[in-house]
Write a structure and sequence with these properties.
The chain is mostly helical. The protein contains 8 helices and no strands.
Length: 170
């Protein structure tokens, strides 16, 4: 088992920060304008919903999703200077993809140190899947969605960095 009560508040913040950092790193690696970013955020929401259905047997992922849901609910309708906003502000973190990847690496190291191997492996897999779903959500480059590519070189590079930071396969 690996559940919320087995982690300090600081460790939990590191784990909860990982999915946010994954989304931010991918979006920040190659910002695709308001429509593309909306598509990427929507893909992240769908990925969370999918994980709630398909990965609920993993107690760590289930606990992480509950905490994330609560934090996103706290975010709705808040002013930008509210602390609840800072906890889920993918746009601020996305301006510094290297910082986001560093946070992902901290979460990967924590998983390796503290979670059972099977639980940690599934969390890493989920985070890599999340990064891929966000990266594939919008066409990058081109004009009005034409002539671009689904995942450009900067996104491919950040996907590889995320996988490496987690100690997972890309």
């Amino acid at each position: 088992m690996s559940e919320r009560h087995e982690y300090t508040d600081e460790e939990w913040a590191t784990l909860i920060g990982a999915p946010i950092a994954v989304i931010a790193a991918v979006i920040g690696a190659s910002p695709s304008g308001p429509i593309g970013i909306s598509q990427e955020v929507a893909a992240a929401v769908r990925a969370f919903e999918d994980a709630a259905e398909t990965r609920r047997s993993n107690p760590l992922i289930a606990s992480m999703l509950i905490t994330l849901r609560d934090r996103f609910n706290a975010y709705i309708g808040k002013s930008p200077d509210d602390p609840a906003v800072a906890q889920v502000d993918i746009f601020a973190l996305g301006r510094d993809p290297a910082r986001a990847v560093a946070g992902i690496g901290e979460a990967g190291a924590l998983l390796a140190r503290k979670a059972p191997p099977d639980v940690a492996a599934e969390v890493r897999e989920w985070l890599v899947d999340l990064s891929n779903q966000v990266a594939h959500a919008a066409v990058e480059g081109g004009f009005m969605g034409m002539g671009g590519e689904r995942v450009n070189e900067r996104e491919r590079n950040i996907l590889a960095e995320i996988a490496t930071a987690l100690g997972a396969e890309a």
